[in-house]
Amino acid sequence: MLKSLIVITAGLMMAGLSFAADARDIILGASMAKTGPYATTARTSETAIDIAVSEINAAGGINGMKIKLIKFDTGGDPKQAQIAVKRFAQDDKALAVIGPFASGEARVAFPAGERLGIVQIPNASSGPKLADKFSYAYRLTEGEFLQFTRLIVTMKRKGLKIDNTQIAYVSDEFISKIVGTKLMPVIFKMQKVKIIGDAVGFPTAAFDIAPQISKLVQNPAQNVAVAGIVEATVKTAKELRRQGHKGRIIGSGLSADPDLAGKLGKDGEGTLYAAW
């Protein structure tokens, strides 16, 4: 992250962006999901950004100018991510924005940033082709397609059982729904993994997902692929185990949360998921 931040900032300066003669700071916005559904993963990103800024400034900054980091907590809400980029561009006069965090936020904030002419660089937005049509939007992460494909290929190479699978996904979260209903089925087909039954969806706030999980357990598979952020993955795994699922639980980069193993506990034994 340190090298990325240096390259981003220096690159923008060399691209012809100028500063007032008396400017003493390079202002960067940080659009962060410090609260809400992405909080635990976003926390590690904030730590990395803080360390990078501290080290760069301690080394003299960039061309003698120190980085001033201004943070905005979006709570994982796309509308707040749009407000954040507008505030950074119009009120704070930021050079660029680190963020927003999630794909759902990025698909709303990217068009706003494009209109305002401010660069945005998320570090965890893995939705397919999110930045492709924009001149001011970039990504540091692999897309979910590559991440999950690599997981399935690795399972096959290691001789793990992956002849068949089922799919569970969060139905009201942008990237989770795409991964569960579009990407996973395509990848399984490409890798000749049989999908048993229809993909089962449930909303983020669902208190009881026993009815949805029972549809999977009635016709058991070697694996259940879960497309969801950490809380949904934990909820699904625990309910699967409670209802007697003995197979493996697998997931995409959506589940790559530093707290996932601890939250799963013994119910996560054997779980595999892609990490960026």
Plain-language structure description:
The chain is of the alpha/beta class and 276 residues long. It has 2 domains: 2-121, 3-Layer(aba) Sandwich (Rossmann fold), CATH 3.40.50.2300; 144-273, Response regulator (Rossmann fold), CATH 3.40.50. It is built from 9 helices and 10 strands. The chain has helices spanning 2-14, 39-58, 78-90, 103-116, 144-157, 174-190, 210-217, 230-242, 260-264; strands at residues 25-32, 66-73, 96-98, 119-121, 164-170, 194-195, 200-202, 223-227, 248-251, 272-273. The strands form 2 sheets. Strands 5, 6, 7, 8, 9 and 10 form a 6-stranded parallel beta sheet that branches. α4 (103-116) links the parallel β3 (96-98) and β4 (119-121). α1 (2-14) crosses α2 and α3 packs parallel to α4 (103-116). The longest helix has 20 residues, at 39-58. The two termini are 13 Å apart. Residues 16-22 have low confidence and may be disordered.
Overall pLDDT metric: 87
Total number of domains: 2
Overall CATH class of the largest domain: Alpha Beta
Backbone structural class: alpha/beta
> Mind describing the biggest β-sheet?
6 strands, parallel
How many beta strands in the DSSP annotation? 10
